[in-house]
Write a sequence for this structure.
């Protein structure tokens, strides 16, 4: 039983990471109607930027904040320069462009910082809280709290602020949004900036756990995409919940089902994606849209 | 200078196409005798990629389903071939139809859930398939050779004694024959009833359905055919490289195939050739620009092509051709109307436009 609880807690910790990246994916989807397949790589890149600031002698929290701000600006610039010219084109064009970004960011990080795994300084104290035999590192609790705050903030922003409403409107129908006076391009730019900042936060909080290298996010991305699809692409809470569920299920399945072991854990989110898409394509908490012919 | 206008299907247009095709055929046949062994190997690989890109284009270009899972089909084809050759002493040419069949069935099975999914969701599911493939290969080690991979002895793939060809040249022609067959089949397929049905489904599914096109049948069919093309490319890859390992078939390969397809030209059969050349040569030269940043250059080129020439190289090709000559479709004759007199008499419509 203690082992079970321990596994659940560990699963929540990994799940928080998936949720953070999934949140960034949901944010871009919700605010621009696109899915950025390069999200994980951009988060990895931001984590490297933070590492670089720290290596130049800044405190780790300051370095993290600076990297997040840089990512916000970088995300807006990327939208303006690369995404805006293709956003009216077909879905496939946009997908290809984000895949180009995927390759470019991955290789750029490798080119600048090399492929040797780096240790990322911890953001939280390294002590461990023991409850009986169950041990929970403070860092895990920290990441979980960050997740709750960001997800809550995001949900509030979408629900209660004017800019959140504008974002939802733009994602739903760009043409009509223009007609009612929303500055669509600015909203899209802001959406990308925010998503990149969120992705940066995800990357930075993940990095101490996964260690920093250009392939750090390869694994996380698929879990994050699974979480976003499973929870509903347009629902921040759905993404968080799904990320946590995937983390826990994966951990339990990896430990209790001998066939899966540690190397086939990756099949768990895939299985979840397929089942979700087949039986509830809009995801657990997503909205179903009716399309007019 | 007055530009000529060629009408499709007229003798003038046909002879121009025929002349260019003959010229192309001569170049293609002569190439391995002119260039070095290494260049010949590169051309062979470009053709291998072209087959996979064509398969993907049948799926994505003509029927509008995005697949990020073709690295897995490619890998299934390659592994099927290598396992049959190495462990079961099957003659290597026989492994091609077997692997093609295996991939056809695999594609069919993956295609079934794909029926319910569209656009990004399908991309997601196939992405998962691509990611799961290497760990699965590693897991079934006794069967696949695990992380170490499996290799074919070079003597197995040597040119037959009676052929006055080096091994590189032999493989080049072997692959070339497959390319010609598969490209011809693809051309027939997209121009057939099936191709038109797929295009109709891609452009607007609901009206297409009301016209009596059964989406499930065509979509699974094209998924299976597309997977089969990728699988055959995988077999040829195994012939040429003679080595397979889980790391040869990562998600990156699927991304590159998809990118090459769009860069070559969506919904064009010939664009796949450009795509294959792109996959083989761009990273090669990108590495010369900067060793560490080759994928950065590659990614940047993909983005640049999308921004500047969204129709891919085929669009560029058309633009260049249009500088020389206009090619127009023949005027549509309503059913029952008498054919216009010029259509039968003139093989060349007089120039109606001038170069501006």
């Amino acid at each position: 039983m203690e082992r079970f609880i321990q596994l659940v807690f560990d699963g929540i910790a990994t799940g928080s990471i998936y949720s953070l990246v999934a949140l960034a994916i949901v944010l871009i989807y919700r605010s621009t109607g696109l899915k950025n397949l390069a999200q994980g790589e951009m988060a990895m890149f931001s984590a490297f930027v933070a590492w670089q600031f720290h290596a130049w002698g800044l405190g780790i929290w300051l370095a993290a904040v600076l990297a997040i701000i840089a990512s916000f600006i970088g995300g807006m610039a990327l939208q303006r320069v690369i995404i805006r010219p293709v956003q009216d084109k077909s879905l496939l064009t946009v997908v290809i462009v984000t895949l180009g970004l995927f390759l470019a960011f991955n290789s750029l990080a490798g080119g600048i910082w090399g492929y040797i795994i780096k240790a990322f300084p911890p953001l939280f104290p390294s002590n461990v809280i023991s409850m009986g035999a169950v041990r929970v590192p403070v860092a895990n609790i920290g990441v979980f709290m960050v997740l709750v705050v960001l997800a809550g903030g995001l949900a509030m922003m979408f629900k209660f602020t004017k800019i959140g409403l504008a974002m939802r409107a733009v994602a739903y129908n760009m043409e009509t949004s223009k007609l009612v006076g929303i500055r669509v391009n600015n909203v899209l730019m802001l959406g990308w900036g925010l998503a990149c900042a969120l992705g940066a936060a995800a990357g930075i909080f993940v990095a101490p756990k996964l260690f920093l290298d250009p392939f750090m996010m390869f694994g996380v991305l698929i879990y994050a995409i699974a979480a976003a699809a499973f929870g509903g692409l347009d629902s921040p809470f759905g993404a968080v919940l799904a990320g946590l569920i995937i983390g826990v299920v994966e951990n339990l399945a990896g430990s209790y089902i001998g066939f899966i072991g540690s190397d086939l854990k990756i099949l768990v989110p895939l299985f979840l994606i397929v089942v979700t898409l087949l039986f509830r394509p809009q995801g657990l908490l997503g909205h179903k849209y009716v399309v007019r012919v | 200078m007055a530009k000529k206008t060629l009408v499709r299907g007229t003798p003038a247009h046909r002879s121009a196409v025929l002349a260019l095709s003959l010229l192309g055929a001569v170049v293609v046949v002569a190439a391995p005798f002119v260039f070095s062994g290494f260049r010949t190997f590169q051309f062979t690989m470009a053709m291998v990629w072209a087959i996979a890109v064509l398969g993907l284009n049948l799926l994505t270009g003509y029927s509008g389903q995005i697949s990020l899972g073709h690295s897995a089909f490619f890998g299934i084809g390659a592994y099927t071939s290598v396992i049959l050759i190495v462990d079961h002493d099957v003659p290597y040419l026989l492994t091609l139809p077997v692997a093609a069949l295996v991939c056809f069935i695999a594609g069919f099975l993956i295609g079934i859930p794909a029926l319910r999914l569209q656009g990004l969701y399908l991309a997601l599911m196939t992405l998962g398939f691509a990611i799961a493939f290497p760990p699965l290969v590693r897991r079934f080690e006794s069967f696949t050779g695990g992380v170490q991979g499996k290799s074919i002895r070079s003597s197995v793939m040597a040119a037959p004694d009676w052929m006055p060809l080096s091994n590189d040249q032999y493989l080049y022609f072997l692959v070339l024959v497959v390319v010609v067959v598969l490209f011809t089949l693809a051309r027939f397929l997209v121009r057939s009833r099936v191709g038109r049905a797929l295009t109709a489904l891609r452009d607007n599914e609901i009206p297409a359905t009301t016209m009596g096109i059964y989406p499930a049948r065509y979509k699974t069919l094209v998924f299976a055919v597309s997977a089969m093309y990728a699988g055959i490319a995988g077999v040829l890859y195994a012939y040429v490289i003679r080595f397979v390992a889980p790391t040869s078939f990562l998600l990156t390969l699927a991304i590159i195939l998809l990118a090459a397809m769009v860069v070559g030209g969506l919904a064009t059969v010939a664009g796949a050739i450009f795509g294959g050349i792109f996959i083989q040569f761009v990273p090669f030269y990108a590495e010369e620009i900067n060793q560490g940043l080759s994928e950065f250059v590659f990614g940047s080129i993909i983005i640049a092509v999308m921004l500047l020439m969204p129709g891919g190289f085929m669009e560029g090709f058309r633009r260049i051709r249009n500088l020389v000559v206009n090619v127009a479709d023949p005027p549509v004759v309503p059913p029952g109307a008498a054919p216009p007199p010029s259509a039968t008499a003139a093989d060349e419509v007089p120039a109606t436009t001038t170069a501006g």
Q: What stands out?
A: The longest helix of chain A spans residues 2-32.
